[in-house]
Amino acid sequence: MGLSAKNLGKSIGDPPARVLSDISLDVAPGEFVALTGRSGSGKSTLLHVLGSLDPATEGEVWVEGREIGAMRPDELCHFRNRRMGFVFQFHYLLAELNALENVLMPARKAGEKDRRRPHAEALLRRFGLGAKVHRLPRHLSGGEQQRVAIARALVMEPGYLFADEPTGALDSANGQVVMDILMDCNRRLGTTVVLATHDPEFASLAGRRVHLVDGRVKAD
Prior knowledge:
Blueprint: E1 3-12, E2 17-27, E3 32-36, H1 43-50, E4 58-63, E5 66-67, H2 73-83, E6 84-87, H3 99-103, H4 105-109, H5 113-126, H6 142-154, E7 160-164, H7 172-189, E8 192-196, H8 200-203, E9 208-213, E10 216-219
Parallel strand pairs: 3-8, 3-9, 6-7, 7-8
Antiparallel strand pairs: 1-2, 1-4, 4-5, 9-10
Helix pairs in contact: 6-7
């Protein structure tokens, strides 16, 4: 069933300012889609609306045959925690928790911390952090912290991974490591990836590009 947006519009502020206008698109299961556009084009806002982090002002978002705007808050929270993973420009790790504990945060919310621990440890090993599972974020490099954040996004084995400028705070080498991980998740695990990025080189690695100008899709 995948992900589907129908006539999405988004306004913010008072008086309302239009950020997204009349966006309709379908993302098939297993696709890797890059949302591109200049700063202020609406790509991050669109990603947040598609990922249920921000409600649309108009239109509908359907995920796996369910309209997320019609879900109760508790129902949406449960669905998001189990079916969606999120990676942002900044890692948002909890400073007092070590790498493994940070990765297990979504599993703790779902009451599955013990069951998911082996998977969390395996993810950290896969991302080259097997020897650093007990380190606090301040003892990890920026690239390592972002890899922990990606492992956290994947620990519940979500069908959808939303990445908002995940390489924006990294140097080119670490940015490429992050992109390699996202591509591996897409190709090896079949995870649907939606990436918002201003970097044309990284966008070219996606199977499909959706280009936004002034809150509207100009090319797909």
